[in-house]
Structure formats: C-alpha cells, structure tokens
Amino acid sequence: MANTNIRLSLALDACSSEIPLSGALIVNAKNDADYSKLGQATCIQWFKPTCDRLMEIGLKSLQNFTTINSFALVEITRSKPQSLGLIAKAFDALSENSILMIDGNKTDGIESHLKTLRKLFKIEGIISKSHGKIFWIKKATRPQILDQWVQGLEPVKIEKDYKTKAGIFSANHIDKASSLLLKCLPKHLGGIGADLGAGWGYLSNELLKTNDKIKSICLVEADWNALHCAKLNINDSRAKFEWTDATQHKNVKYDFIIMNPPFHQTRKAEPDIGKSFIIQASELLTPKGQLWMVANRQLAYETTLDTCFTSVNSITETPQFKVINALRPKKQIFR
C-alpha cells in the first residue's frame, strides 16, 4: 500500500515557513495519515469510525465548515463533484493569501483536479509520490465557477423524488440490490426494527409507507451525509436516526433487521464487513427475531449466517444478487 504520509510530509516541509502553528483545516481527513506537523488542526469528516479515530488522537472533528482558517488541506474523494465542492468550500474558509493543498491518489482522480485547478490558479508547487500527487495554491481572486462547485454539494432529487448528495453510496439512482430486497420483504413485518447501513433511507422509507404494523425503525448509518439525506427523505415519526458504525450500534432488541451491508470501503472487496454486520444483527435481534438481507451473489456469507442463526433461507437469487432470510439468532437461544 502506498505511503501517502511521505507525500504530505514533503509538501509540508516545502511550505514549512508558511504553515501556521494553529488554525489549520483538514478536509476529508484520514484516520491513518500523519497530521502532526499541522498541530491542533480542525478536521472535516463524515464517516463515523474515522471521526472517532481522529478524536482519539486529539484532533477536532466537524461535519460542516464553520471557521476561517490560515491553512487548508483537502484530501480528495472518489467523487469528482464532491471533491470540487470541498475544494471550493476550503477556499472560502481560508484567510487571504493562505495556502490550500489538494492531495490524492491517481486512482481517485488527482490528475484531473490538478488540470482543472491549473486553469484557474497559479500552482505554487507539486509533489508526485506514492502513486499520487499533492499540489498547492494560495488564496487570491475567487473564480466564479466555485459557486457551481459549492452547489454540487447540495442535495439533488433523483427517481421517485428521493434526495441524495454527491459522494454517498448510490447517489445517482436507487440501488438495484436494495430494490430487490424490498420486493422480497414480507407484508407482516412488525414491531421494532432496524436498518443497518441505511444509506439515504430508501429501504426504510418504502417499508414504512406500506406497513402500519411497524412501531419504529432505527436507521443506523456511518456516513453523516447519507443520514442527512435519509432525514430529508423520510417524513414518518416512526423513523429514528443514529449516526454510528452499525457494528458498534447498541440499543433495545429488535424484532426484525433489514440490511444491504457494504462490502468494501476501498476499491477492493472486503467481505469481512458484511460478516461483521451479520454477527451484529444476530446480537441485536430478539430470540424470535429475523434478519432480511441482500448481498452480491459471489460473497460467501452463508457460513457466518449458519453460525449465527438457527434457520437460514435463500429467498431469491439473480445473476448479481441474493436475498437471504435468517431466523432466531443462536446467541439468544443458548445464552
């Protein structure tokens, strides 16, 4: 794995005389990066596990831009509209003549951002290292196009009038796997439920619209931006919202859980994430509770399901996905 800390360290050393002792802003801060040269910086981050880690090492973590800063670093995301919006917001949050650094890997599109920014600003420096680039500019005259970039961070309507944001999962359309799961959910689901990894709220909202037996459903989501959209999308007092890592969620026991668990945080498949969701679901359900989940067909979750539940049933399969219903968590029965 590329060591992006070297790239950042070299860039900060190159600008050492202009790096403030305080007042730095790090946008989309990473939990494995070394920001020690930036002192007591303020971070902008939306993924709850990363926020928790940043706070553990003594950094302040926010979800919105709230202050004027004397230095800013933007770690780009894989979403170009989101990254451009964050660059514009960081620019606006800087005092005049302060440095704005933009860092990222080639696979995340850093070359494209460098090309775009070069047309608008003087590039003060560039360092290529560890399969990526970091470059920096100084705040000067504000190009009008930054208004469009900022607007690109606002919620937009997609099909069925759902609102989403750039950078969140399935931002441009209703996820096919979630749509398949919804078609398979029984009409008799009732009681207290949870939606683990709820995203922008599609599954929960559709379920609440058609089922008055549900007393409440807790949407558990680690992405603050996605959960913000879920709150915009659901107008039902039975919906509860919790910004947390689903595998760390602790609450009352649930009668049912629905989920379309993530299977990667980078570009590489990570089936252990889905397995941890299954284990967590078994611990959160009542002894007679049931899990309804959808997953990519090739992901081998069956062994974990059999370990955690007394009954596991394949409901349907397509060339891409599979829907599974698991009943009666073993941990509850044999406790």
What does this protein look like?
α6 packs parallel to α7 (202-210). The two termini are 42 Å apart. The protein has 2 domains: 4-151, Rossmann fold (3-Layer(aba) Sandwich), CATH 3.40.50; 156-333, Rossmann fold, CATH 3.40.50. It is built from 11 helices and 16 strands. Helices cover 30% and strands 31% of the residues. The protein has helices at 4-14, 48-56, 80-92, 110-118, 146-151, 176-184, 202-210, 224-233, 271-284, 302-308, 330-333; strands at residues 22-27, 40-44, 60-62, 69-75, 94-105, 125-129, 132-138, 156-157, 163-164, 191-196, 214-221, 239-243, 254-259, 285-296, 309-317, 321-329. α7 (202-210) links the parallel β10 (191-196) and β11 (214-221). The strands form 3 sheets. Strands 3-2-1-4-5-7-6 form a 7-stranded mixed beta sheet, sandwiched between helices. With 335 residues, it is α/β, with parallel strands linked by helices.
